[in-house]
Amino acid sequence: MNDKKIKNIIIIILIPLCIALGVIIFKDRKYNLISMIIAILSCIPIFLTFEKGETSTRRIVIIAVMIAISVAGRVAFTALQGFKPVAAIVIITAIYLGAEAGFLTGSMSAIISNIYFGQGPWTPCQMFSWGMIGFIAGLPFMQKLLLKNRVVLSIYGIFSGIIFSLIMDIWTTLSIDGIYNMKRYMAAVATSFPFMAIYAISNVVFLMLALKPFGEKLERIKIKYGI
Fold first, then answer.
1. What are the residues whose beta carbons fall under 8 Å from the beta carbon of 159, sequence distance 6 or more?
2. Average pLDDT along the chain
3. Ranked by mean pLDDT, which of 37-46, 49-58, 137-146 comes out on top?
4. Which candidate, 91, 88, 62, 60, places its Cα nearest to that of 74?
5. Which residues contact 41 (CB under 8 A, 6 or more apart)?
6. Which of 34, 88, 90, 95 lies deepest, with the highest CB count within 10 Å?
7. Strand, helix or coil at 79?
8. In the chain, what are the helix, strand and coil shares in percent, each to the nearest 5?
9. Residue 116: is it exposed, middle or buried by C-beta count within 10 angstroms (0-12/13-18/19+)?
10. What is the spatial distance between Cα 198 and Cα 97, in angstroms, rounded to a whole number?
11. Which pTM value belongs to this model?
12. The dihedral of CA 72, 74, 80, 83: what is its sign?
């Protein structure tokens, strides 16, 4: 099995299974353990590329800096409910550094920023949601689309806000008694719609403001250090 398949299995299959294990089997009581497992799994794709020489120490440092900016941005906008730059920073990281970097930035942004906001059974789901937003944005064909067309980038920002909210609503539904109920899920979606709208709009705003300054710096660093 090649490294690409291993990465996809970890991100698309193993991490969701960990979340399901935490919600259904452990009834959300082992969320700290599940969060740490997801954090470790999130690092494996990057470590695989590091071992093959595809990832340098400089690239890891840049990813760490982007995670720090994402966390700081979430904390800075604490007063504005739902209006956060996390997804935008994750998307920009993915566009310039790839899918694995995008997933790692998203997942680690959630667990680290929740040191301030509070860890809870929602943390693993947040890690996966933001991680997948970065993973999809970092796929080669998506990188080209998002960089070339601001309209497509804006649409993806809106899509990211909707997807994040919908995935979190799945956790809300399952967290009640571990059973998925469509009526309960639709009620959760309806209740969270204002948050979804605000978050989708904030993604577009932050993407439009941050893409050029962050993109120029990341591109310059990539060229200068051959990343």
1. 200
2. 88
3. 137-146
4. 88
5. 10, 11, 14, 15, 18
6. 90
7. coil
8. 85, 0, 15
9. exposed
10. 27
11. 0.89
12. positive
21-35, 143-157, 185-199, 208-222: which range is least confident on average? 21-35
How many residues can be counted in the chain? 227
Copy the structure tokens of residue 138: 């970092």
- pLDDT on residue 2: 67
Q: How many CB atoms lie within 10 A of CB 114?
A: 18
Q: Rounded to whole angstroms, how far apart are CA atoms 227 and 221?
A: 8
- DSSP class per residue in 119-136: --TTHHHHHHHHHHHHHH
In order of their start, the domains of the chain are 3-225 (1.10.1760.20)
pLDDT band at 107 (very low <50, low <70, confident <90, very high): very high
Q: Position of tokens 């806000």?
A: 161
Q: State residue 56's pLDDT score.
A: 72
**Distance in angstroms (rounded) separating the CA atoms of residues 209 and 227:** 24
Count Cβ atoms below 10 Å from residue 65 Cβ, excluding itself: 14
Q: Tell me: the pLDDT tens digits for 125-161?
A: 899 999 999 999 999 999 999 998 999 999 999 999 9
Residue 41: closest CA among 72, 23, 18, 21: 18
- Measured CA to CA, the distance from residue 171 to residue 34 in angstroms comes to 14
Question: Residue 2 corresponds to which tokens in the numbers above?
Answer: 């090649």
